[in-house]
Design a protein that fits this description.
mainly alpha; 21 helices
Length: 414
């Protein structure tokens, strides 16, 4: 009681530093507080200005951990009933237990759905979808299989319904563009769900999205944006699901990667194509098709295609190459040497040079352990051993004036 009497009054102080000290103190003594004291603390913390948000969230999490029943039955329902963008951080902080997190996730997605149905401008609501993702990660990290299955049944239909509502109520192209970031967050939410699904669940989800993409080849805006959700699932599912759908996945993603004129969607398709190739069986028929047929088509486009077509083909080639490099596939060296050869191309030479950063960088949105990616431990070292000597030779030939790559190796290259 004496500790509560020390820390609680500081929450009313005008000095931010003093308030932060009080919030830290409440975090430490949360387990010793009565239900009434907890309710008062939560009420006051919610009213505190955002300059102490970090300490406020920590205090709320501590209170939720030590008084989960009170939070689940009394405090959280009231917040969810009057959910707003301003209260999202507090709601997430209080949703520390799997059963409360499931309820919160439903409320967040439901709130977004109601906003989209009402035709409200959604350009500033990314925080709601981000919060939903944070809650989802918290649920899955606790390993509650019953709650996971419940979320699988509920989250995916709600995300897809929200997606449909968004495009049904967006009247203009500018309105669609304003919510691109929200679609991105929804895609990330689906990816996190897909990472945890078993074969049957993941296969059903991927089949549904695949059919949605195949049904409309007209290039309608809403179908183009669907690529983000579709690719997110492709990235997250287990390799066995990719193998069973590869005959449909590869042609669709290759076509979008080569011909889609919407840059964000073309990039998403290229990433999905990369994820599929990375998960394919090394000696399987689908990998052989990629190495024999797809790479041949891309080489032809890079050799004599239009300026725009060559840029799309190079983007797809770089992601294909990355998929091979990170798994140390035998064909990786050949793919990398093609990139080196493209350095002398006037249309895509500089882009090819910048592509080496992609080949060596870590991708947080695909090719991770959580995405069941095939990533070899020493792939970067192997890449350096094979490529650096070639680049050194190119630099030496520039210095001697005998290289066709001279423009790219010049320090002031255009």
């Amino acid at each position: 009681e004496s500790l509560y009497g020390v820390f609680y009054p500081t929450l009313w102080a005008e000095d931010s530093e003093l308030k932060c000290l009080g919030l830290s103190g409440i975090s430490k003594v949360a387990q010793f507080l009565s239900d009434k004291e907890v309710s008062l603390c939560v009420q006051r913390i919610l009213a505190i200005s955002s300059d102490t948000s970090k300490y406020s969230c920590t205090a709320l999490k501590s209170l939720a951990d030590s008084h989960s029943k009170l939070v689940a039955e009394t405090i959280l329902p009231g917040l969810l009933d009057s959910l707003s963008t301003d209260s999202v951080d507090a709601v997430v902080s209080l949703s520390t237990q799997s059963h409360t997190a499931a309820t919160t996730l439903q409320a967040l997605l439901g709130h977004l759905s109601s906003l989209s149905t009402a035709g409200v401008d959604l350009s500033g609501t990314e925080g709601l979808a981000t919060a939903a993702g944070e809650v989802l990660v918290g649920v899955y990290s606790q390993g509650d299989e019953a709650v996971k299955f419940y979320l699988y049944q509920q989250v995916i239909p709600q995300v897809l319904l929200l997606y449909r509502n968004i495009f049904a109520n967006a009247q203009t192209l500018s309105a669609l563009r304003s919510i691109n970031r929200l679609v991105k967050y929804l895609a990330d939410l689906l990816r996190r769900v897909a990472q945890t699904l078993n074969f049957q669940q993941a296969s059903g989800l991927l089949s549904d999205l695949l059919q949605s993409c195949l049904q409309d080849a007209s290039g309608a805006v809403e179908q183009v944006e669907l690529v983000a959700l579709f690719t997110a699932v492709v990235v997250g599912v287990v390799p066995e699901v990719v193998w069973s759908h590869a005959s449909l996945l590869l042609p669709l993603l290759f076509k979008l990667g080569c011909h889609c004129t919407c840059s964000p969607s073309q990039l998403q398709a290229a990433k999905g194509y990369c994820a599929v190739i990375n998960k394919l069986q090394a000696d399987g028929v689908h990998m052989k098709s990629v190495l024999d047929d797809d790479m041949t088509v891309l080489r032809e486009i890079l050799s004599c295609g239009s300026h725009a077509a060559k840029h799309r083909a190079l983007s797809l080639w770089m992601w294909l190459t990355k998929a091979l490099v990170v798994r140390s596939h035998p064909s990786a060296r050949k793919a990398v040497m093609q990139v080196v050869d493209l350095l002398k191309d006037r249309d895509v030479g500089l882009e090819a040079a910048n592509g080496f950063q992609l080949l060596l960088s870590d991708c947080s949105d695909l090719l991770t352990a959580l995405d069941h990616a095939n990533v070899k431990l020493m792939y970067k070292q192997k890449f350096y051993e094979e490529v650096v000597p070639v680049l050194r030779e190119g630099i030496a030939s520039v210095q001697s004036g005998t290289s066709t790559h001279q423009a790219l190796f010049q320090p002031n290259a255009p």
